[in-house]
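Re: that chain you flagged

S.,

Sorry for the slow reply, it's been a week of failed gels. I finally had a moment to sit down with the sequence you sent. For the record, here it is as I used it:
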Amino acid sequence: MPANLQKNRTGLSRVWHAFGYSLSGLKAAWFEKAFRQEAIGAFALIPMAFYVGNTWLETALLAGTVVLVMVVELLNTAIESAIDRIGPEWHELAKRAKDTGSAAVLLSLLLCIAVWAAAFYAKLFSA
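Prediction finished late last night. Pasting the C-alpha cells below so you have them in one place:
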C-alpha cells in the first residue's frame, strides 16, 4: 500500500479529496494571525472592488490583488511550516527560506496597496 493514497486516486474521487485537503488548508491557515487579518480585509475589499472599479477589468484587478496577497500568505505559511517541521534550531538556509517567503508577502501587499491607491485616485480625481 502506498504511503499517500491520493496518488492512486483518479477522476472525480481525486478532485473531491483534493478539495477536502484544500479546505483543511484554509482551516489551518485561519489560525495564523496574518492570514486571518488578510482574510478579514478581503471580506471588506473584494465587495468594495465592485464599487471602485469602473470596468470588469478594473474590478478583477482590484479583487485579484487582494486574493494574491492571501495566496502568497498561504505559500509563506506552508514554507514556514515545512521549515519548522525539520527542526527548531537556527540554520542559514531555513532563515533564508522564511525571509524570502516574508518578502514575497511584502511585495504582494505593496502591489495591492499601489493598485488600490491608484484606483481610488482615479475614482476621486477623474472628470
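What I noticed first: Residues 92-125 form the longest helix (34 residues).

Talk soon,
D.
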